[in-house]
């Protein structure tokens, strides 16, 4: 059975977004919205999904969790694990870019925000989010890093919800199949966020052949109907897009970052460990240049660098919104090389319809 | 007019190769072979092209030159410009990998081979090769680095031979159009050889839109019919392939390197300055790891690093062929990420036919 039939959707366009409005808009346009859950506590996620249940009126949507799973944060104040050298570098950075030093006081907002994030990116935290998600009418659970843990697969199986898993190599794809993934998302190096080194063009056919008959979605470099047609030609059954929604009307991308995205070329991204500790493609900014530069102590691992970065960005973001020039220089966000194509703010629904229409044209051009 | 009609070919598969047998085989299979001329002196090129004229019996083929053009080598012994520090590092490298030290004597074979190469990669050298090429029935001149110099375009125009130019960014594409290129080859970062940072999936549609109505070929990540269909879906009028020919029966790829290619995965390439001085994707080997490693003085610029590397490879290649383990570790060659797909030696003609057949299947799958 084709994936669209199996999931009950009109078009195989999967929209990964941290913004519920984007998820609802794509699902309601006939695609499949997937909410990135890492930004939410269990309670917040429950609220968001109740909203989505109402807004999508029975159409399917999914939830994406991050399971790096090395560090179990229960009972530990993770923020305390960040070395003084890295805190000092952050202080220097804030000072160099004309910002007030980041707060370090015990129980500070940034500190506890970091602890919250830390709890959610551990295996136990992710499972908690999944338990919440399964109380709602979700149609897919996606695991963005590493094989889904057995308890996650078991819970999903019991609820008859398919599990999708993102991979950057054939080896990872085979491991994900082993772990019980029902759908593989083959994500090329051009993608935003955590990404490997192999391009979508090269990766997708290899993964399709390796895991057949498991359906494969293509991710990375896909933000238009021509790119969607290319992905299908490579053997994918659909496309998994993230970056293209970041400049939609619905996206909650901070305005300062949205403006940078709209102005950026495809050369303005970098695969850097500076935001999470693992290589993740993002807009290059003073943040990535300084952390990857000569005077840097080097990014920490995952999840410590993520805690440090999220804490800092919680200050940088609002300062950039207020127009503070140093903060604007530092501000960035995960985005793929397709950022060079994004030069207009549009409703998410329009993005879906334009992709479908351009896809049809591309297919017609290919017809013999 | 479609490019295939304009160039008088059956299928828009362009084969870049340094091996005349591959060029002839692809042209005779209905594609378009393009001979990389940088390895030849003017006299050798004349001989190769006379052979191609006979073998292809009136079917079109082309010639590719490298025009980095910063250093004019006339009257200079270029090998003398290589710093002692880099020669010393090379000595250490040879010793570490159990090889006899590279010869440095005045008038040594490696030295004069380097001088020969140097002469050919300058603007005057490239023009000399083009003058030779235009005495033959060539159907295309391609410029692999930088905009074609005005004299090259003028010579080609006079002979009514179209000029193709390789680009890795939209900006370069616009510059190439300005310089008079008739065909743009948009080459993604996954390609072998000199390549930029943007993936084929992202680059091709941007270049197609930027230079329309100039026809665009897609390069990088294309070694199968599915990938060819994807390239056409992206808006390209054809595909420019290099890596896929390196493991064909006809290819003169040294056996030691061919074996490494057949065994390699798509993770086994690296974009490194260690072979030419400019970032070029190649098989990772002890050569790339050492030059890009901590104890390295860092690669020189183009063309000095190319001279140093070509001189060294002239010794490493034969030693690897003799099975010397250190030489086998060092040996490498330019290749794209598609190397992970190449696991069988086939005749070049069969590669063309399989691409065409898989292309047709992919198009059929896309049909509504």
From TrEMBL, chains A, B:
Gene3D superfamilies: Aldolase class I. InterPro entries: Aldolase_TIM, NMO. Keywords: Dioxygenase, Flavoprotein, FMN, Oxidoreductase. SUPFAM superfamilies: Inosine monophosphate dehydrogenase (IMPDH). GO terms for molecular function: dioxygenase activity; nitronate monooxygenase activity. PANTHER family: 2-NITROPROPANE DIOXYGENASE, MONOOXYGENASE RV1533-RELATED. This is NAD(P)H-dependent flavin oxidoreductase YrpB (Nitropropane dioxygenase family). It comes from Nonomuraea soli. The lineage of its organism: Bacteria, Bacillati, Actinomycetota, Actinomycetes, Streptosporangiales.
């Amino acid at each position: 059975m084709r994936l669209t039939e199996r999931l009950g959707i009109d078009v195989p366009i999967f929209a990964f977004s941290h913004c519920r409005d984007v998820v609802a808009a794509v699902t309601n346009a006939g695609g499949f919205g997937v909410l990135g859950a890492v930004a939410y506590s269990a309670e917040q996620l429950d609220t968001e999904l109740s909203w989505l249940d109402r807004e999508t009126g029975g159409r399917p949507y999914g939830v994406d969790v991050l399971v790096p799973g090395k560090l179990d944060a229960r009972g530990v104040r993770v923020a305390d694990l960040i070395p003084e050298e890295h805190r000092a570098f952050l202080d220097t950075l804030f000072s160099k870019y004309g910002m007030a030093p980041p707060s370090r006081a015990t129980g500070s907002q940034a500190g506890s925000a970091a602890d919250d994030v830390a709890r959610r990116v551990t295996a136990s935290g992710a499972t908690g989010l999944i338990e919440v998600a399964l109380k709602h009418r979700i149609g897919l659970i996606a695991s963005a890093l590493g094989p889904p843990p057995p308890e996650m697969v078991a819970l999903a199986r019991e609820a008859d919800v398919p599990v999708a898993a993102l991979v950057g190599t054939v080896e990872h794809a085979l491991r994900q199949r082993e772990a019980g993934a029902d759908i593989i998302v083959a994500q090329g190096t051009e993608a935003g966020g955590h990404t490997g080194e192999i391009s979508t063009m090269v990766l997708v056919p290899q993964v399709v052949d390796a895991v057949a008959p498991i359906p494969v979605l293509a991710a990375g470099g896909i933000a238009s109907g021509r790119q969607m047609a290319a992905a299908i030609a490579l053997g994918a059954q659909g496309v998994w897009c993230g970056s293209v929604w970041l400049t939609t009307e619905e996206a909650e991308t901070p305005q300062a970052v949205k403006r940078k995205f709209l102005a950026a070329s495809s050369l303005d991204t970098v695969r850097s460990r500076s935001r999470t500790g693992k290589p993740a493609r993002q807009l290059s900014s003073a943040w990535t240049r300084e952390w990857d530069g000569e005077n840097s102590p080097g990014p920490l691992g995952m999840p410590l660098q993520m805690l440090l970065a999220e804490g800092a960005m919680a200050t940088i973001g609002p300062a950039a919104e207020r127009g503070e020039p140093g903060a604007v220089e530092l501000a960035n966000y995960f985005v793929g090389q397709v950022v060079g194509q994004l030069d207009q703010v549009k409703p998410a629904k329009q993005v879906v319809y334009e992709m479908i229409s351009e896809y049809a044209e591309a297919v017609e051009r290919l017809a013999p």
